[in-house]
Amino acid sequence: MKSLYAQVAVVAPIKGLLTYLVPQELSTIKPGAIVSVPLGKRKSRGFVFAITETPPATEFEIKSLDSIDAEYPAEIFAPKLKWIQWLAEYYFHPIGMVADSVLPPLSKLQKNTTRKRSPIPDFPPEAPFQLNPEQHEAYHAIAADSGFQTHLLYGVTGSGKTEVYLHLFDKVLAAGKTGLFLLPEISLTPQLVNRFARRFGSRIALLHSQLTDRERTQFWWEMVQGEKQILIGARSALFCPVPNLGLIVVDEEHESSFKQEEKLKYHGRDAAIMLAKEMNCPIVLGSATPSFESWLNSEKGKFKLHRLVKRVGDVQLPEMRIVDLKKSATRSKELGLPFWMSEALHTELQSNLENNFQSALFLNRRGMSQSVICPACGYTKECPNCDIKLTLHAHNHLVCHYCDYHESYKSKCSDCHEGTLEPLGIGTESVETEIKKLFPTARVLRVDRDEIQNRIDLENAIEQVEKHQVDILIGTQMIAKGLDFPNLKLVGLVLADVGFNLPDFRAGERAVQLILQMSGRAGRHRKENEPNGVVILQTFNPDSEIVQMASQSDYEIFCKYDLKNREIFSYPPYGKMISFRIQSRDLDKSQQTARMLSERCFNLKDKSESFDQIQVLGPTESPIAKIRNEFRFQIILKANNASVLHRFAKIVLQNEKWIPTMVKLYADVDPMNLL
Ligand code: ADP
Ligand code: ZN
Questions:
Q1: Comma-separated ranges of CATH 3.40.1440.60 domains in the chain
Q2: Which of 120, 151, 287, 392 pairs as cysteine with 368 (C-beta 3.0–4.6 A)?
Q3: pLDDT tens digits, 383-440
Q4: pLDDT value of position 50
Q5: How far is Cα 290 from Cα 174, in angstroms, rounded to an integer?
Q6: Which of 137, 312, 314 to mutate to test the pocket of ligand 1 (most atoms within 8 A of CB)?
């Protein structure tokens, strides 16, 4: 009998597959099997990717694998192998570490069959709504495909995208298949889950980071064994080996939080598209503000575009009014209002309160002030661990938003010992304090990362707003996404300029998305005789393109305009990017490594004409030059051809032995964060 060899992805920082001899008694082994293998002096878990009869060409002794894990039949993982391989290769991550993410957190034996409290509530079932003509058209156009096809569902806020998804899942389930619904972690709120629960009852399963290991293990098995048919989850749910997949939906596809920023730096949306391709099923990307990547793909015809241009039930999009804070400040002063409370916003808040409607104030900055500064010498307090100014919070705390360092705030300047440190700028906490003074009878709730530590806090906050126990909601981007509050009529963007000038080519795209998403919370439902929603956008830059375009509520115009700029400079989505980050506690070493890496890049460019198109930018200090005491440098590679760029980066990364210990080198393919 011929010997069999298994190509195994071992759970260790090893780039490729390792070959092991299959013992005679395990000769029924198949790709997808999980095995225990010797690795050095240890035993390690491994995933079998292929079985061959050809012995590998090596002078080393080939070891035998030890055993097959009986808990997971090979059929579970076999359909996922190609996708895992793609992730590992595309994102330059050890394949065994990628493969390991497909497993549930606990072993099945520990599976708890009776839950104390189900994370999915029981609900009276709800019949589907009759789709309106726009929804109907989109639904049919999407449902027409049963094989792989990417659809972009571009529907304004409140246009009924979710209802279209529900109908699509209905059809998939009726055909005996399963579905996967992906959302950014923060949007996985009970509002959304309850809607699915009311429609599909006990057929749904959940996977996200706030569930316990037991809950995740149980949902994992229920999906894998076909006991549940719709998996709702954050990007990590992609790794669950759902059998018989008939549809993937990625909601809020523009969200940059779909990109994982550590370890395997994958983009949930892109990985979902690859999975749909592997499973040969359709995928729907939904958004009121699509990413430029998806927009361009739909222009090129790679994605099919479907539009919902109206809100459901003839509800109008909110009216947007722009306030120039430079001009409104004088009047605010006369009225005894803080500079950021224009007369217009004040009046609207007041009348909303009198009419018993809810309002939301949005400011994308936590704390009491952005920083503290000494007016005598200009000194500002910085974090000792990070290249970041400290933010003043209540109870006289100075906090670093990157490493959570804090110290108590002493007003005497520690630099010149003369001046008194003064708060500069505003944050959600100072807005809350002032609002409580201005509207003493109003019930105020603040939702930001200081107040909301976990999912339960967020769920409680949402419930309070739903029950109208809150008149004025104040928050950061935590309140900007996906929430649906019928009585919310007014949205005030307190200082829309935050984020306009970040040194990132996506700053404009993100700012407009955030403005439109937050605005989209206003006036989503309207009973007869009720006013339409109102948005008051306050800014110091009323003439900026971002404000002008956002105010027209016409995302498409902005998209086309800003895409032109991207094209001129070959930025994504036209050009492709891979960034290298070099990080170390040792400043000299990190700087030297960055220089050496860039030399390697330039040398490689000289070696082949095909690399002429590759631009090597850097090395430079990262915009945030230090985080948690690690110095940060970066090199950005840019090119028009994605596969040439990828091949180039792969060669650069091939041999990492030259990198000094204590220095970390991270590659980030299609980086979303360049700070
Ligand atoms: P989106 O996901 O685009 O923001 P939703 O799907 O949340 O919009 O729809 C907004 C509101 O309209 C929801 O409360 C939803 O229940 C309701 N709705 C959606 N489609 C219909 C329909 N065809 N008929 C009646 N109500 C609908
Ligand atoms: Zn810090």
A1: 4-102
A2: 392
A3: 999 998 999 998 788 999 888 899 999 888 988 988 888 888 899 999 999 999 999 9
A4: 97
A5: 30
A6: 312
Domain ranges in the chain with CATH number 3.40.50.300: 133-313, 315-365+428-565
Ligand 1 atom showing the smallest separation from residue 165 Cα: 6
Ligand 1 pocket test, candidate residues 134, 163, 287, 314, most atoms within 8 A of CB: 163
Q: How far apart are CA 72 and CA 35, in angstroms?
A: 10
Extract the residue ranges of the chain whose pLDDT is less than 50.
none
- Cβ(403)–Cβ(383) below 8 Å: yes
Atom nearest to 195 CA in ligand 1: 16
The reply to whether ligand 1 has any atom less than 6 angstroms from the CB of 569 is no
List, for residues 624-637, the tens digit of each pLDDT value.
999 999 999 999 99
Does any ligand 1 atom lie closer than 6 A to the CB of residue 163?
Answer: yes
CATH number of 315-365+428-565: 3.40.50.300
Please state, in angstroms and as integers, the Cα–Cα distance from residue 321 to each residue in 324, 529, 540, 609, following that order. 10, 22, 14, 54
Nearest CA to ligand 1 atom 20: 160
Three-state DSSP class for residue 673: coil
Residue 357 CA to ligand 1 center (angstroms) comes to: 20
Q: For 630, list phi and psi in degrees, rounded to 5.
A: -105, 130
Adjacent-strand bridge partners of 319: 534
Residue with CA nearest ligand 1 atom 10: 158
**CB 157 near ligand 1, within 6 Å:** yes
The neighbourhood of ligand 2, an ion, using CB within 5 A, equals 383, 385-386, 400, 402-403, 405
- CA pair distance 512, 639, nearest whole angstrom: 26
What burial class does residue 278 get, using C-beta atoms within 10 Å of its C-beta: 0-12 exposed, 13-18 middle, 19+ buried? middle
Residues forming CATH 3.30.70.600 domain(s) in the chain? 576-669
Ligand 1: residue whose CA is nearest its atom 9: 160
> What residue spans of 580-658 are helical by DSSP H?
587-607, 642-653
User: For position 77, what pLDDT does the model report?
Assistant: 97
Q: For the domain made up of 576-669, give the CATH fold.
A: Alpha-Beta Plaits (3.30.70)
Q: Is 159 in the pocket of ligand 1 (CB under 6 A)?
A: yes
* Cβ–ligand 1 contact at 155 (below 6 Å): yes
Distance CA 601, CA 268 (A): 29
Q: One-letter amino acid identity for 268?
A: G
Q: Is the pTM of this model over 0.90?
A: yes
pLDDT on residue 117:
61
- Measured from the CB, is residue 131 less than 6 Å from ligand 1? yes
- Of the candidate CATH numbers 3.40.190.10, 1.20.1250.20, 3.60.15.10, 3.40.1440.60, the domain formed by 4-102 belongs to 3.40.1440.60
Query: How many Å lie between the centroid of ligand 2 and the Cα of residue 388?
Result: 7
Q: Note the pLDDT of residue 189.
A: 81
Strand partners, 6: 20, 51
Burial of 106 (0-12, 13-18, 19+ CB in 10 A): middle
Q: Specify the pairing of strand 615-627 against strand 576-584.
A: unpaired
Domain 133-313 belongs to what topology?
Answer: Rossmann fold (3.40.50)
